[in-house]
């Protein structure tokens, strides 16, 4: 059971502009709650009154100001509880996408008794009405914010409930084990047959591990990743950045020490939003500007999701003057592969920014580093909140597998609580609030 039924202020009628600020062909004002259709009657003049219109229909007509003057013409979409996004009566007004029109229509809805919706409140109502679980609500947010194909695909999967189903399957295995333990509680000498307990638990553990294995990919798909280009001066960092981008973003010259400040550029790699960071070539230098750039490069390498190290393949090989932490995801490159090679190394990928050789292989390697080898057709964990709950559930399941029956039950109850928090079936207000705070108003 959800413990948030006591949440106040959810029985009133809310309104918001649902489309992004700015000028557009069409804009939408949403009104949801018990008064939505009464407000629509006063705000909209069409062939029929919205309150007399069946759900799932739309009317064409005029949007009216306080004095009955026409603010704009457009559509009124009528939805009736429980067949709407929020589960409540909803009126959606499609107007011309002008900030002035949308502002006046919203103001009129507020004068007529609606209050301004809080960020994410439409989706919060859908969640409280049981139309979405919390993983689906988070998928809505990820879908609204999706910039790339991978993010969109995962959000769509999450929205379909696929993630919730994966979690529910684990919860069923835990419940199954709990009930077989409970059934034998009256016969303490017997205990639960080992395989009856271990099989579903092993399955639950494997699935939780698999789910957690998707957390990194999910984070990268939704939030993007930073990739730093690191190497000695003249290694070809700026040339590679330009080659990956397909345009001349960074200055390239034969002079060592060309790039001093760092420089960022966005692109989509493996369907993931990526920020490429070009940095100053690493070397000891008396020049205080260049030295500051070198320091920055070291810091940027530390904060990057993936570090690409570049070494000039046409010059005698030099060690990278930087130690990367062992946890760093790094890809090592031998650059300028179009020139005669001064060294080779089978461990190192060869690229040429000049001819484009090796770039497809580099893109593929980056895809693997960014997303891992997770299946793209399965639902991934979509937020740090979800990963944290899954991690706690896994810890309890692992403990349960090592403990005697009575103690194992306690761990399994805890694991189930963590899973219920993940899906939002049993969750504290503050967790729910934190989820919906990230939404925009109107969603
Ligand atoms: N033949 C050839 N020359 C390259 C290639 N990549 C870079 N160069 C040349 O190498 C020199 C240095 O290239 P940059 O891209 O500026 O190197 P960098 O690592 O950014 O250098 P700093 O900014 O000084 O740290 C330039 O003269 C480039 O034209 C390549 O793939 N093939
Ligand atoms: Mg450079």
From TrEMBL:
Homodimer. Heterotetramer of two MnmE and two MnmG subunits. Pfam families: MMR_HSR1, MnmE_helical, TrmE_N. Its cofactor is K(+). GO terms for biological process: tRNA methylation; tRNA wobble uridine modification. Its main location: cytoplasm. Residues 224-371 form the TrmE-type G domain. Binds 1 potassium ion per subunit. Mg(2+) binds at residues 238, 259. GO terms for molecular function: GTP binding; GTPase activity; metal ion binding. It is found in: Cytoplasm. Keywords: Cytoplasm, GTP-binding, Hydrolase, Magnesium, Metal-binding, Nucleotide-binding, Potassium, tRNA processing. (6S)-5-formyl-5,6,7,8-tetrahydrofolate binds at residues 30, 92, 131, 443. The keyword GTP-binding applies. This is tRNA modification GTPase MnmE. Gene3D superfamilies: P-loop containing nucleotide triphosphate hydrolases, Probable tRNA modification gtpase trme, domain 1, tRNA modification GTPase MnmE domain 2. InterPro entries: G_TrmE (IPR031168), GTP-bd (IPR006073), GTP-bd_TrmE_N (IPR018948), GTPase_MnmE (IPR004520), MnmE_dom2 (IPR027368), MnmE_helical (IPR025867), P-loop_NTPase (IPR027417), Small_GTP-bd (IPR005225). Exhibits a very high intrinsic GTPase hydrolysis rate. Involved in the addition of a carboxymethylaminomethyl (cmnm) group at the wobble position (U34) of certain tRNAs, forming tRNA-cmnm(5)s(2)U34. Its EC number is 3.6.-.-. It comes from Deinococcus radiophilus.
């Amino acid at each position: 059971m959800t413990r948030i039924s006591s949440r106040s202020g959810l029985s009133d009628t809310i309104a918001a502009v649902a489309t992004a600020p700015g000028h557009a062909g069409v804009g939408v004002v949403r009104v949801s709650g018990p008064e939505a259709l009464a407000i629509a009657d006063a705000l909209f003049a069409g062939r029929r009154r919205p309150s007399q219109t069946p759900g799932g229909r739309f009317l064409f007509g005029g949007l009216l100001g306080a004095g009955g003057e026409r603010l704009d013409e457009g559509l009124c979409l009528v939805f009736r509880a429980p067949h709407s996004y929020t589960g409540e009566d909803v009126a959606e007004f499609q107007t011309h996408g002008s900030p002035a029109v949308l502002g006046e229509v919203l103001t009129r809805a507020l004068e007529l008794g609606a209050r301004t919706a809080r960020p994410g409140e439409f989706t919060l109502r859908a969640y409280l009405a049981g139309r979405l679980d919390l993983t689906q609500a988070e998928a809505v947010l990820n879908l609204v914010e999706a910039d790339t194909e991978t993010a969109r695909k995962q959000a769509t999967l999450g929205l379909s409930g696929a993630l919730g189903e994966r979690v529910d399957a684990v919860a069923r295995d835990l419940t199954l084990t709990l009930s077989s333990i409970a059934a034998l509680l009256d016969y303490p000498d017997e205990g639960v047959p080992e395989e009856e307990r271990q099989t579903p638990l092993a399955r639950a553990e494997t699935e939780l591990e698999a789910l957690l294995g998707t957390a990194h990919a999910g984070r990268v798909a939704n939030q993007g990743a930073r990739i730093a280009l690191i190497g000695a001066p003249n290694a070809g960092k700026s040339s590679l950045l330009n080659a990956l981008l397909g345009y001349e973003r960074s200055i390239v010259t034969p002079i060592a020490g060309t790039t001093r400040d760092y420089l960022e550029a966005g692109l989509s790699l493996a369907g993931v939003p990526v920020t490429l960071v070009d940095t100053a070539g690493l070397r000891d230098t008396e020049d205080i500007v260049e030295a500051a750039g070198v320091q920055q490069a070291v810091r940027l390498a530390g904060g990057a999701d993936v570090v690409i190290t570049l070494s000039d393949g046409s010059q005698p090989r030099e060690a990278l003057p930087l130690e990367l932490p062992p946890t760093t995801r790094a890809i090592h490159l031998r650059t300028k592969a179009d020139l005669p090679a001064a060294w080779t190394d089978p461990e190192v990928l060869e690229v040429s920014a000049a001819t484009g050789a090796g770039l497809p292989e580099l893109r593929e390697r980056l895809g693997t580093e960014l997303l891992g080898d997770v299946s793209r057709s399965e639902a991934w964990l979509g937020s740090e909140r979800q990963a944290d709950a899954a991690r706690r559930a896994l810890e309890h399941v692992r403990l349960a597998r090592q403990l005697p029956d009575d103690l194992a039950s306690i761990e399994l109850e805890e694991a189930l609580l963590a899973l219920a928090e993940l899906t939002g079936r049993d969750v504290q207000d503050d967790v729910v609030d934190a989820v919906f705070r990230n939404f925009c108003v109107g969603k």
